[in-house]
Amino acid sequence: MQEGSGILKEGFLVKKGRVVHNWKTRWFVLLQDRLLYYKLVGGKKEASPKGIILLDCCTITCPCLEFENRPLVIKLNTKNSTEYFLDSCSREERDTWALDITSAIHAGNPVQVRQLHLMKNSFKLPSNISLNHIVDKMHDNSSGVKLTPNTEQGNMYKESFTGAALVDWLISNRFSASRLESATLASVLMEENFTKPVGARSVEAMRNGDLAEQFLDDSTALYTFAESYRKKVSSKEELHLNILELSGTIVKQGFLIKQGHKRKNWKVRRFVLRADPAFLHYYDPTKDDNRPAGGFSLRGCLVSALEDNGVPTGVKGNVQGNLFKIITKNDIHYYIQASSKAERVQWIEAIKRLT
Length: 355
Hints:
Layout: E1 9-16, E2 23-30, E3 34-38, E4 40-41, E5 44-45, E6 51-54, E7 59-64, E8 73-77, E9 83-87, H1 91-105, H2 110-120, H3 131-138, E10 148-152, E11 155-162, H4 163-172, H5 179-191, E12 195-198, H6 200-206, E13 222-225, H7 227-232, H8 236-242, E14 249-259, E15 266-275, E16 279-283, E17 294-297, E18 302-305, E19 323-327, E20 333-337, H9 341-352
Antiparallel strand pairs: 1-2, 1-9, 2-3, 3-6, 4-5, 7-8, 8-9, 10-11, 11-13, 12-13, 14-15, 14-20, 15-16, 16-17, 18-19, 19-20
């Protein structure tokens, strides 16, 4: 099958190696019966795929909760029992990839594909709700979710809360309007690895594939905060450094290719655009570390598209197309490549609104 005509979706994902178990960013191309992935060299996709994942009789697990510091992983298990782990830049991007891959797997069953799309569109997280803001409120010592000792089937869980208690808290803090919305939002918090089930009832419900039924609005179902959040806030030095610039609402995030300042090589980075205060941070998606690799305030920045014909001044390597430049108020130049002209326009417009 030729790659050009039958592309269903393409973009960056972070793949776990099967021989050396490190994480590498690859460009993925979804076709009707297979998933191709390519290595990037000098900011350009290689001509031949690095690997091929055949989708016939493939099974997909989403969310895959096998990696504590990577809550956005999709797991694929092929017909010959080969496992692939693919990490995404956001919950929305992960769910879109999972839906499109699942649709390709079940392409011969249009009824099942239609049901998948209905399930996907059954819940949308409101744009004005920030999960990080909710979690920070949940941990507030005075007004957050209270951790208490609870017992289930003879087992004591010292620091836990019930499903019903979290639903009550979400409604009382006006993060949701109904108990059903709260339960669905609580399921999202579990998917994103902010909370986790403890005890037999809640753990079993988590294995249910329906988002609205993964969390139990029940006074006997027990939950607690995930370890990843505690690790994230354990360093006072890190908190002091990032508490202001990382406190803004996430406006946009995604994978972009950035030119390094010293070696001038091109690397895929996960960019996160925040407002109030306006900052742009970038992260190394191959590392489990939640701290940004770099970032800067957008106040006083200039952002512009670069011409697609030829290599612009300041750009090294055989990189062409979809480039844009950000100049900070300290006159530091960032050269960034998007995966398409449309994506470049979206990023430039989003950044301009905050400068």
